[in-house]
Amino acid sequence: MGQQQLNVCVVGAGYVGLTTGVCLAYLGHQVTCIDKDREKIDMLLAGRAPIYEPGLEDLLRLANARLKFTTSPEACRHADVIILAVGTPPTPNGNADLSFMEAAAAEVAAQLTGERFQVIVNKSTVPVGTAQRVNLIITTAIASRGGSANFAVASNPEFLREGVAIHDTLYPDRIVIGSASNEAINMLRVMYAPILEQTFAAPKVCPRPERFDLPALVTTDVTSAEMIKYAANAFLAMKISFINEIGGLCEKVGADVTEVARGIGLDKRIGPRFLQAGLGWGGSCFGKDTAALIRTAQEYGYDMPIVSATVSVNRRQRLRAIDKLQETLKVVRGRTIGLLGLAFKPDTDDLRDAPALDIIRVLLEMGARVKVYDPVALENFKIQYPNLAVEPCKNASELSQDCDAVIIVTEWEEFRHLPLAELAEKMTGAKVLIDGRNIIDRQDAEKAGLRYVGFGR
Ligand SMILES: NC(=O)c1ccc[n+]([C@@H]2O[C@H](COP(=O)([O-])OP(=O)(O)OC[C@H]3O[C@@H](n4cnc5c(N)ncnc54)[C@H](O)[C@@H]3O)[C@@H](O)[C@H]2O)c1
């Protein structure tokens, strides 16, 4: 490939770490994925991906020769680049929990010999100051054993979306690298060279998009790099909350938010993406990152009313599904309600902060019988939420049997082509279809005999 091959360790083989590791190996680097979860590593050693991510297993096979999987951090000893991609879940007060980052930094520090220059990369989403904190942990550990330090920390936030993670890794809009060390920036420039220059042969499972512009490389200071990630997620979440707020008013005045979104999205300053009104955002990032941003601001005595409103509009939006049930069914207690979709978005099995969970909890509290179906996330759901007393179904048709209302919660592709007449036949009472993602044509639904309720239309 005519490029420099680096020895890379990725600590944390989750959605971000595993995707990054597999892609870097595909691009020609020697990669070791390290995870403390033995089960995950065993699955990977057997050639299987522990998460559902389209194309990941194919790429695992293609890059197999340059990939290693282990639970031991020992491989960090010989790495040029060590990428920290562990979880940073929210604490109850909204702060990012940095305990996994700090533990990983300490484990890595124990391996650094000082014999070669090494770059420690914070890829996890972490609040301002974390690069400094990681630097301190490692420096202190090395000093306490009388070793010599020869490393630099860089912030390299990740922007991939689950479901299209490989695409986003191989064909990003930009790569952001923040570091005080030019040597570190140069090392990462080398690591990312195949992506920045698009010199690799595109894998069949993830072809290069037509008319793809080379990604921008943003090199900056660490603090700005850390802030870029939070600002990006808060902005995207705000865009969705904004269109949902407009959608609420559209319902009142008789406008259609999908028409409004089309009309404003054509303005290049606004753009059409993240303007789909519906049940709002969820997932592992937007909720926790907006909360962490607000917490950081609080530490500085600074108000962020726009970010706060983004969060509260989203909370209200999820419960709009319940309002709509009450408006159409009047009484919810004792009714059978079906949820189509559990994952927070299509093409993933990730249930973190999924709107479906809030809706299920409220429906159960209200005394409804709840049936659920998801093409991929059902198994995860059964394992993670055994106490939610719902009835899992094998498909949309089985789900609709005896339902007073069906709510489309996740815009899985198969829900765009629901057998509406069959659903109507199996449902009972008012036969309400609440289209939480505005993916069904009202006329089609009504023709099939369903009472259609969209969002903001
Ligand atoms: N999931 C996304 O779409 C996404 C996108 C961009 C950024 N991020 C950020 O990336 C980070 C990772 O997210 P994720 O979704 O990949 O998390 P994840 O929970 O899927 O993966 C984290 C992994 O780290 C492992 N781990 C924890 N401590 C470890 C240690 N000391 N040594 C080795 N392994 C360890 C865990 O076992 C787990 O497998 C988070 O900060 C997140 O905010 C996530």
Automatic annotation (TrEMBL):
Entry binding sites for substrate: F159, L160, R161, E162, K229, F274, L275, Q276, A277, G278, G282, K345
SMART domains with a match to the protein in the record: UDPG_MGDP_dh_C
Gene Ontology MF annotations: NAD binding; UDP-glucose 6-dehydrogenase activity
Gene3D superfamilies per UniProt: Cytochrome c1, transmembrane anchor, C-terminal, NAD(P)-binding Rossmann-like Domain
InterPro entries: 6-PGluconate_DH-like_C_sf, NAD(P)-bd_dom_sf, UDP-Glc/GDP-Man, UDP-Glc/GDP-Man_DH_C, UDP-Glc/GDP-Man_DH_C_sf, UDP-Glc/GDP-Man_DH_dimer, UDP-Glc/GDP-Man_DH_N, UDPglc_DH_bac
Reactions it catalyzes: UDP-alpha-D-glucose + 2 NAD(+) + H2O = UDP-alpha-D-glucuronate + 2 NADH + 3 H(+)
Coiled coil feature spans: none
Record pathway: Nucleotide-sugar biosynthesis; UDP-alpha-D-glucuronate biosynthesis; UDP-alpha-D-glucuronate from UDP-alpha-D-glucose: step 1/1
UniProt superkingdom: Bacteria
Keyword DNA-binding on entry: no
Annotated positions binding NAD(+): D35, K40, T88, T125, E162, K288, R352
GO biological process: polysaccharide biosynthetic process; UDP-glucuronate biosynthetic process
Active-site residues, Swiss-Prot/TrEMBL: C285
Record domain UDP-glucose/GDP-mannose dehydrogenase C-terminal: where: 338-442
Keywords: NAD, Oxidoreductase
Enzyme nomenclature, EC number: 1.1.1.22
Keyword Oxidoreductase included in the entry's annotation: yes
Similarity remark: Belongs to the UDP-glucose/GDP-mannose dehydrogenase family.
Protein name from the UniProt record: UDP-glucose 6-dehydrogenase
